[in-house]
Amino acid sequence: MAGATTLHLGGDQATRFESRAATRETPLVKWLILGTALSFFTIFLLMPLIAVFIEALRKGWETYATALIDPDALSALRLTLLAAVIALPLNLVFGVCAAWAIAKFEFRGKHFLITLIDLPFSVSPVIAGLIYVLVFGAQGWFGPWLSEHDVKIIFAVPGIVLATVFVTFPFIARELIPLMQAQGKEEEEAAIVLGANGLQTFWHVTLPNIKWGLLYGVILTNARAMGEFGAVSVVSGHIRGETNTLPLHVEILYNEYQFAAAFAVASLLALLALVTLGIKTWVEHRAAVAYRNSQDDAS
């Protein structure tokens, strides 16, 4: 009977009916899938996050506050924010330029450029840090010249910034490339035909179309910059109060058996991550609303 009923339906109705039938599951299967997903979320994400705050507050608010206002902790916070503030605009410029070139133009070496953008995803951050030590360290390729001119990169802030830039620069480009490719280049070409120059075309045509994807990439870049450990650990030298970021400061406190202080600083990182997650969710919502509005306007 079901097959006979389907034959009397129109083409679009039959397709929708078959689609619903193909995805219809029993309540048991639905609850099993949902329960599995929620169990993994609870065990591997929610419980560790709650444990961080419980351990941070185990010895009371006074101990918690003391750990956060410790001079070494404040120095680590300043350095973490400094590295993120410097790396973010550098990645912003590179990401937009790379995405624009890849999505809007055809040129030799295009696929090679895409491969280079993906390089930090395939190379361990520790290896990246070792590469910088090999190039800029005291015994590295440029080490003697840097020492001669009293320029310090490794075990100093510049090395931390370089490592942060390396591990974060794919995020904006990788967020914008598929978005700009899907949008095509007809609007930019129309603007140029109407007399707009390159800067005007980017500011009034390209940027409004990519603003939500760009903001999303910026949020991801900032989150990775603040939480990076491997590459920064190699190039920092772990100089307390000078070259320690927040993740490195947590490691030092934990290794010194200052567990309450370690979890307190870790909770600060967790709070920054939660704020970032909240902003990310808001951006996704705004982007979805903007997309629906554009579809309504088009129809």
Describe this entry's structure for a reader.
With 299 residues, the chain is mostly helical. The chain has 2 domains: 33 residues; 237 residues, MetI-like (MetI-like fold). It contains 15 helices and no strands. Helix 3 crosses helix 15 and helix 7 runs parallel beside helix 13. The protein starts with a helix and ends with a helix. The N terminus is likely disordered.
Brief descriptors of the model:
299 residues, mainly alpha, MetI-like fold, 2 domains, disordered N terminus
Quickly count the domains: 2
Assigned CATH class of the largest domain: Mainly Alpha
Mean pLDDT: 85
Task: Tell me what the CATH architecture of the largest domain is.
Answer: Orthogonal Bundle
Report helical residue fraction: over 70%
Note the overall shape: globular
Task: Report the total helices.
Answer: 15
Instruction: Give the helix/strand class.
Output: mainly alpha
Radius of gyration: 25 Å
Strand content: under 5%
Low-confidence segments: 1-10
Which secondary structure elements does this structure contain, and how are they paired or packed?
Elements: H1 2-8, H2 11-23, H3 27-56, H4 61-68, H5 71-104, H6 110-122, H7 125-136, H8 143-148, H9 157-168, H10 170-183, H11 186-193, H12 198-227, H13 230-236, H14 246-255, H15 259-298
Keywords: Cell inner membrane, Cell membrane, Membrane, Sulfate transport, Transmembrane, Transmembrane helix, Transport
Organism: Thauera linaloolentis (strain DSM 12138 / JCM 21573 / CCUG 41526 / CIP 105981 / IAM 15112 / NBRC 102519 / 47Lol)
Main location: membrane
